[in-house]
Design a protein that fits this description.
Layout (H helix, E strand, L loop, with lengths): L3 H12 L10 H14 L6 E8 L4 H6 L9 E8 L4 E8 L4 E8 L8 H12 L2 H9 L8 E7 L13 E8 L15 E6 L4 E7 L37 E4 L2 E4 L2 E8 L3 E11 L2 E17 L11 E3 H5 L19 E8 L5 E23 L4 E18 L2 E10 L4 E9 L3 E3 L7 E5 L2 E4 L1 E11 L7 E9 L12 E7 L17 E10 L5 E8 L12 H5 L7 E5 L21 H4 L11 E11 L9 E12 L22
Antiparallel strand pairs: 1-2, 2-3, 3-4, 5-6, 6-7, 7-8, 9-10, 10-11, 11-12, 12-13, 13-14, 13-23, 15-16, 16-17, 17-18, 18-19, 19-30, 20-22, 21-22, 23-29, 24-25, 24-26, 26-27, 27-30, 28-29
Length: about 650
């Protein structure tokens, strides 16, 4: 047990934290792991998939006053490789003790980075794998890459109650080559990750390895462009934002940020100052799950359905960002304090990037009668991080604008997942000789805990309709926007409809602007799509959230992830489809909006060997939230006197 002195030291360290939502410090993470090891039977066979802040109750945070004492708690997920049992723990860092210890039967936590490297080593050392390589004429093990993937759940009885990985194999042309260009199709090792033993080698027959190495690094290019001149972004008077711990203030915006192993960047208590009052918009916002279903039915490929948050965790896969490469300008970075699978502190330096950008014209009008033009430059605040998930890179960007708009954008790049052509190109695109880039989709589910001027909000769907031809519309030109209240969870399961210009708005019916309109924000869809999987496909049982673009639930602290807490190898049915069966009322209550958007990717040769960035996302725009444009007070650009 921790001593009285150690508990005092922990309490003192936690008291130095300025706010209840500040992420755990390295010292707190170390302490949380040590306390669990000290007070529970946690031996060397245990791994630590998650150590993060146990967020205090929402009601406490909303009523918190600076300087008030508060409890600091850590939430941990542990996995005992010896028994296969998963545990959840809550540790009071203030008191120096474990306050909750629960076994969670029948689930598999996310796969950890340490497991990936150990799995690859186990496969390469296995004689049957080496023999399968030799049959293909491959004798140099150093040139072989074994890429462990989550195995999913397809109802196979022999996979139940095992922690498994199904590995993809590749061949490097040289030690520096792009191995994704040369898949060794037809060879799939399956590994028990708890025992770190190869269970079987699935050998579906020899398939020729694509011949080209698909190089993209500069040393492999015959020449590079010589006409690119330097572009400098400077702010000689300093940045316009203020940072205090993880609280950020920029012009009229205020918010806090956090970072979790599963979600990566999290926003808290987002508000906008209006007429001297800080008005709340979002209590908590994050990407809660992303799923990438691939569309090739062949035995080598049908299991490729990646849950990048629930099976791996994009926070754990975040990059350490580099100035001038990932971020440009005057940058403020935030580190991410995480752990490796053994509970040791692992810090990702420069995990989150904060900066300002010029974004063209904010507004303009020319009065030609007076020969007078007024124009304002738009500036936006950017919060971002980038994660590498096997072959793909994902950039996750929040933008905050001077007119009260919030934008979320995913930037997709990296390397396509390919298979050997094997005379079957139907479900992909040939991007190089004998290389087939597989058709796939990316689905992102956002969890948006709205608090529009308070917690009691309602959600409406807005469709534009044509006025019927008649006395009120004699020339047939009239149309109007029709708002429909979504009163229950079932009614709020909706899909986009660009033909009615459909959007959804979250309003506070008890707060009105000066025109007696209820204040609100609307969700403006961007690119979107629905899954092409059959309704009975296992992926739709496991990721049922993909079938709708909008879900709304009443706030429940336990309802954080749309596929449930442990989607890895889970048969499905949990999360949003399960919660909403009760059809709970959602009118004038504390609502959580789940917005789902998808990127549909039929690959192009131009996407190879490394993909130019694709963009997907949505916007949150104020609708009657303000009395008029909040951007009228943006001054003319001081360096360009002719702008007014």
């Amino acid at each position: 047990m921790t001593t009285a002195r150690e508990r005092i030291e922990l309490s003192s360290a936690s008291s130095l934290v300025a706010h209840p939502l500040e992420p755990l410090t390295a010292k707190e993470v170390t302490a949380a792991v040590a306390i669990v090891r000290d007070q529970q039977p946690v031996g060397d066979s245990f791994r630590f998939p998650c150590v993060t802040l146990h967020e205090p109750p929402k009601s406490f945070v909303l009523n918190y006053k600076p300087g008030e004492p508060f409890e600091r708690e850590a939430f941990l997920i542990l996995l005992d490789n010896a028994t296969g049992t998963t545990y959840e723990a809550i540790v009071s860092l203030t008191q120096g003790k474990v306050t909750s210890w629960t076994a969670v039967p029948g689930v598999q936590p996310n796969i950890m980075a340490d497991e990936l490297s150990e799995c690859e080593a186990a496969v390469k050392a296995h004689p049957e794998f080496q023999a399968a390589l030799a049959k293909r004429g491959i004798t140099d093990l150093e040139s072989v890459v074994v890429d462990p993937w989550a195995i999913g759940n397809f109802g196979f009885a022999d996979e139940e109650n095992l922690r498994l990985s199904r590995c993809l194999c590749y061949l490097r042309t040289t030690p520096d080559s792009n191995f994704y260009a040369r898949p060794i199709d037809g060879l799939v090792p399956v590994v028990d990750l708890n025992k770190m033993q190869v269970l079987r080698i699935e050998d579906m027959g020899v398939v020729p390895v694509p011949p080209e190495s698909g190089e993209y690094e500069p040393q492999f290019q015959p020449s590079l462009r010589t006409d690119i001149k330097p572009l400098h972004i400077t702010q000689p008077e300093g940045v316009g934002f203020e940072v205090n711990g993880h609280e950020i203030r920029w012009q009229k915006w205020q918010m806090r940020i956090g970072f979790t192993p599963r979600e990566g960047l999290v926003l808290y208590t987002v508000g906008y100052e209006d007429q001297g009052q800080l008005r709340s918009i979002l209590y908590r916002a994050s990407m809660a799950e992303m799923v990438v279903p691939y569309g090739d039915p062949r035995p080598q490929h049908f299991r490729k359905n990646a849950f990048d948050l629930g099976e791996h965790g994009v926070g754990m896969l975040a990059n350490s960002l580099k100035l001038g490469c990932d971020c440009l300008g005057e940058i403020r970075y935030f580190d991410a304090v995480l752990t490796n699978s053994r509970g040791d502190v692992s810090i990702i330096e420069n995990a989150v990037c904060l900066h300002e950008e010029d974004y063209g014209i904010l507004w303009k009008h020319t009065d030609w009668r007076r020969d007078r033009a007024e124009v304002r430059r738009s500036r936006r605040l950017v919060l971002s991080f980038i994660a590498t998930v096997d072959n793909y890179e994902y950039g996750f960007f929040w933008y905050f604008y001077q007119d009260g708009t919030i934008q979320y954008e995913i930037k997709l790049t990296g390397i396509l997942l390919c298979g050997a052509l094997d005379n079957y190109p139907k479900f992909g695109t040939v991007v190089a000789p004998e290389l087939n880039a597989i058709n796939h989709q990316h689905f992102f589910c956002m969890r948006l805990d709205f608090d529009i001027d308070g917690s009691e909000n309602s959600v409406y769907e807005v469709n534009s309709e044509s006025e019927p031809l008649g006395p009120e519309n004699p020339y047939g030109n009239a149309f109007f926007a029709k708002s429909t209240l979504l009163a229950t969870e079932q009614a709020a399961q909706r899909i986009i409809d660009p033909f009615t210009a459909r959007y959804w708005k979250v309003v506070n019916p008890s707060v009105k602007n000066r025109l007696e309109q209820p204040v609100g924000y609307k969700i403006v869809p961007g690119e979107n799509v629905l899954p092409f999987a059959h309704p009975d496909a296992p992926i739709l049982k496991r990721a049922g959230f993909m079938t709708k673009h909008l879900w709304v639930t009443p706030y429940d602290v336990e309802e954080k992830y749309p596929t449930g807490k442990y989607p890895n190898q889970h048969a499905g049915g949990e999360g949003l489809p399960q919660w909403t069966q009760g059809d709970r009322p959602i009118e004038n209550t504390d609502v959580v909006v789940w917005y789902v958007f998808g990127h549909h990717h039929i690959p192009r040769p131009e996407d190879w060997p490394v993909m130019p960035t694709a963009y997907s996302g949505f916007m949150l725009k104020p609708v009657s939230f303000f009395d008029a444009s909040p951007a009228l007070d943006v001054p003319p650009s001081v360096t360009h006197k002719a702008c007014h």
